Amino acid sequence: MNELIFACVAVLMTMGASGIALMVYPPLRRHSVVIMPVILGAACLALGAYLLAYLWPSYASPGMLADKLLFGAGLFGGFGNVATGLVIALISAVVAFTLEGRLKRWSVARKRRAAESAGLSFLGFEAPTAAESLQEVGDVAKKPLLFGALSVWTGSAEEFFYRGTVLVASIGTALFWPAFALQAGTYAVSHLAFGWPAILGKLLLGLSFGAAAIVGGMIPVILAHWGYQWLVARQFRAPSSSRKSARKKPSDAVST
Q1: Residue 252: its pLDDT value, please?
Q2: Longest dimension (CA), the chain
Q3: Domain boundaries, the chain
Q4: Cα separation of 46 and 51, whole Å?
Q5: Which segments cross the bilayer (predicted)?
Q6: What pLDDT is stored for residue 140 in this prediction?
């Protein structure tokens, strides 16, 4: 269990330290929404590899680990598990995206923006508010190739780490339930910069993606994560002139 806690805390510490470093050095601050996902992906891949190398071999053979990571532990076996997990993950992505957007709008309507955006300003330097962080995501989302590359990189790495090497690898061991809670909680807390609606939305997403990964392995949640990112990018696209009056306002759900 100590290895799992260490790995999850290490992800949070890496992101926290990187964020502070970028804020302390102003010229890089405006690039943080690009730099941070790159660092996050690298940290997730490295820590996932650490768990596969030093924790899980004492619980299962490499073949058993690979089978769990690729096909989960559903009732249908093989690609039946993958298909079932994909359905669960895609539905979860849409529900979590919608919920997070509604929570954000409710928060703004209730004039609670200041409370959700305190960020790290108590440390003595200017930290971006949740609104600023969201705007930066929107700016990158308007560059499809860049946003797509970051989404594939970070989404794949996060799912490999959280739902793969933390959760799915723990199936059949005494660490399963602690791992289920740990991956969802850490994933949610890592979105602190975007405010409490993002934390609640990502908590739901982490729990739901966790269930999908248990059934169908990593592939469904990686694909659904990419789909979630597509929804995030889509909300920032300028509406066509023929749809301006009919299109709803962006949901304000944030990138993962």
Answers
A1: 66
A2: 60
A3: 2-235
A4: 9
A5: 33-57, 69-97, 160-182, 203-228
A6: 81
pLDDT digits (tens, 9 = 90+) for 60-94: 999 999 999 999 999 998 999 999 999 999 999 99
Angle between helices 176-189 and 196-216 in degrees, nearest 10: 140
Is residue 219 within 8 A of residue 72, CB to CB? The reply is no
CA distances from 193 to 47, 92, 116, 174, 210 (A): 22, 23, 9, 33, 23
Paired tokens of 115: 């409370």
Here the tokens at position 229 are 């990112």
Whether the pLDDT of residue 174 is over 70: the answer is yes
Amino acid at 48: G
Contacts 24+ apart (CB under 8 A), 70-74: 70/217, 70/218, 70/219, 71/216, 71/217, 72/168, 72/171, 72/213, 72/214, 72/215, 72/216, 72/217, 73/168, 73/171, 73/172, 73/214, 73/215, 74/214, 74/215, 74/216
Distance CA 158, CA 208 (A): 15
The total number of residues shown for the chain amounts to 256
Q: How far apart are the first and last CA of the chain?
A: 26
